[in-house]
Amino acid sequence: MATEPLTKEQMKSAVLSDAVTIPSPGEFFSAMDDQGQPNWTQLYAPKSAGTTASREQMALMLGVLVADGYIAVEAQDGQGVKNTGKDIINLAKKLNVSQSVISRGNSINDFAENNDWSALREELEATQNEVKLSMAEQKDKDLVILVTIGAWIRGTQVASDFIAKNYSPGLAGLLRQPAIVEYLLDELGKLPDRMQKQPLVAEVEQKLRDILNLVHTKDRKPPAPEAVKDVSATMDSLVNDIAKGNKEQ
Amino acid sequence: MKTLGILFLTACILTAQETPDSRERTTSRSKVLELAGAFANDGYKIRDGYWSGVLEPGKPQVLEVNLFSGNAYWFCAAAVAPARKLSVTLFDENGRPVEGEIFQDGSTAAAGLLPDASGRYFVRLELVEGDKADFCLVYSYK
After folding, report:
1. Residue A113 lies in a domain
2. Which residue range is the domain that position A163 belongs to?
């Protein structure tokens, strides 16, 4: 018997979960590998976290660093993975995450030492999830989505920059992620007012809205070359603002 | 695989400390990781995140996911007794069923897909035989 399509009600009430609905940066990069074979060594240009007292900015930066870790893994740069892992743990400590997260840093070092790239991909995601769990346990639940957003922004920045310079419909199709952007915007909308009003968080929200217009194409068509360039420019400025620190709060 | 080993060890520790409900969920997670591990041998990377809950007869659950063209995926699910038979079905962003590979073995099931377009998809998990039980779903990609 043929399978019946889902009803509109079933699709509308589908479960959305940060842990499984949002692809990991590694998943995004794996698809890029298949479509365009990027030179990851050239693309690995890690960001350093600027000084800031804002926990929201630190959470966004933590996500950026996680994505950088995946890029280092794609580049098979063991020292790069270790450095990024150290940055992740240092920033996580400032957010008072649990000891279990800190011990992940040792695992990242061990796997990097052994060039175990597959285990590193899993460990990076596990570290990110453990940071989020620790945040939730410490009543910092609102910061969790910012880590996810930071990682998504950094992954999209690197991908869109590469795609803008090496445009093909197949590669550009990878940027067509309106459902993800809508989900992230919905989650941002649930943050407390004081957080939403912070300049950096407000900037993230505005730029995600701009991105939604660029990647929400009809009939599953890939974004056009000009749209990809606009995505790249928007993501560039956002990543720079997250990393520069001292953003007025 | 080292990470899986750590997960199993963690599962054992949690089993010793937690309530019967969470113990069942841990068991369904262990079961599903065992199934997903078979695909890992074929180069699939297992996502660390998972979806878990309670499945009841006649009340399928639907999860929204975002997939990339160029990747191959397996969605694996497992439930504990009294669940006896599960099914996993994949749908595109318009809710139409998509063709792919299917695996079914009692209270474990999986569906594989090579998406022809990037974007939103849906995973439907259904209890075909048996009674209300905890389930866990993970996915892997390559």
Report:
1. yes
2. 24-244
Q: Residue B4 pLDDT more than 80?
A: no
Partner-chain residue, chosen from B45, B66, B70, that has the shortest CB–CB distance to A180: B66
Is B6 a residue whose pLDDT tops 50? no
Q: How far apart are CA B93 and CA B111, in angstroms?
A: 17
Predicted pLDDT of residue A248: 47
Q: What are the residue ranges of helices labelled H in A166-177?
A: 169-173
The answer to whether A121 touches A73, Cβ cutoff 8 Å, is: yes
User: How many Å from the N-terminal Cα to the C-terminal Cα in chain A?
Assistant: 59
Determine, yes or no, domain membership for A71.
Answer: yes
Q: How many residues does chain B have?
A: 142
Q: What is the mean pLDDT of residues A16-38?
A: 91
In the structure encoding, which two tokens stand for residue A67, read together? 């994505």
**B11 and A CB contact within 8 Å:** no
Nearest partner of B60 among A20, A15, A23, A18, judged by Cα: A15
Question: What is the C-alpha separation between B10 and A98, in angstroms, rounded?
Answer: 16
A21, A122, A212: which to substitute to probe chain B, counting the most B Cβ within 10 Å? Answer: A122
- Interchain CB contact of A152 with B (< 8 Å): no
- Whether A179 sits inside 8 A of B61 (CB atoms) is no
Is residue A13 situated within a structural domain? no
Long-range own/partner contacts, residues A178-182 (CB < 8 A, 24 or more apart) = A178/A212, A178/A215, A178/A216, A178/B119, A178/B120, A179/B64, A179/B66, A179/B93, A179/B119, A179/B120, A180/A21, A180/A22, A180/A23, A180/A152, A180/B66, A181/A208, A181/A211, A181/A212, A181/A215, A181/A216, A182/A212
The reply to whether A249 falls in a domain is: no
- The pair of structure tokens assigned to A201 is 């968080």
Rounded to whole angstroms, how far apart are CA atoms A111 and A113?
Answer: 5
Q: How many domains does chain A have?
A: 1
Q: What is the ipTM of this complex?
A: 0.89
pTM of structure: 0.87
- CA neighbor of B60 nearest in space, from B39, B93, B81, B83: B83
The fold of the B2-141 domain, in CATH, is Jelly Rolls (2.60.120)
